[in-house]
């Protein structure tokens, strides 16, 4: 099993804003705030494939796009 850890700085900023707002609104504790701030913008891919980090990220992105396109390919009902 291989682990690929990535950090997206744009995603991090958005998540940090949300986390801060939730703390200010009292929806999360200070402890949860600290934990979530530390994890903001990071995601982990667990795979059986031992390939480069860039190649794994490209496969990940391709799969995300495939899922988006699959949704668009659902046939519309004939009455529309």
Strand arrangement, largest sheet? 1-2
- Give the domain tally: 1
* Principal-axes shape call: elongated
Q: End-to-end span in angstroms?
A: 47 Å
Query: What is the succession of H and E elements?
Result: EHHEH
Number of helices: 3
Q: What is the gyration radius calculated from CA atoms?
A: 18 Å
Q: Describe the main β-sheet briefly.
A: 2 strands, antiparallel
Mean pLDDT: 84
Question: Could you characterize the architecture of this molecule?
Answer:
The chain is of the alpha+beta class. The chain has one domain (2-72). The chain has 3 helices and 2 strands. It has helices at residues 9-24, 30-39, 53-72; strands spanning 2-7, 42-47. A two-stranded antiparallel ribbon has the order 1-2. α1 (9-24) packs antiparallel against α2 (30-39). The radius of gyration is 18 Å and the shape is elongated. The termini are far apart. 2% of the residues are buried.
Main attributes of the structure:
two-stranded antiparallel sheet, 2 strands, 57% helix, 15% strand, alpha+beta
SSE layout and pairing:
Layout: E1 2-7, H1 9-24, H2 30-39, E2 42-47, H3 53-72
Antiparallel strand pairs: 1-2
Helix pairs in contact: 1-2
In short:
The chain contains three helices and two strands; from the N terminus they run βααβα.
């Amino acid at each position: 099993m291989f682990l690929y850890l990535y950090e997206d700085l744009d995603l991090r900023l958005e998540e940090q804003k949300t986390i801060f707002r939730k703390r200010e609104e009292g929806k999360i504790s200070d402890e949860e705030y600290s934990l979530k701030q530390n994890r903001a913008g990071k995601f982990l891919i667990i795979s059986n494939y031992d390939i480069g980090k860039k190649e794994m990220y490209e496969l990940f992105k391709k799969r995300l796009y495939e899922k988006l396109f699959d949704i668009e390919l659902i046939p519309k009902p004939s009455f529309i």
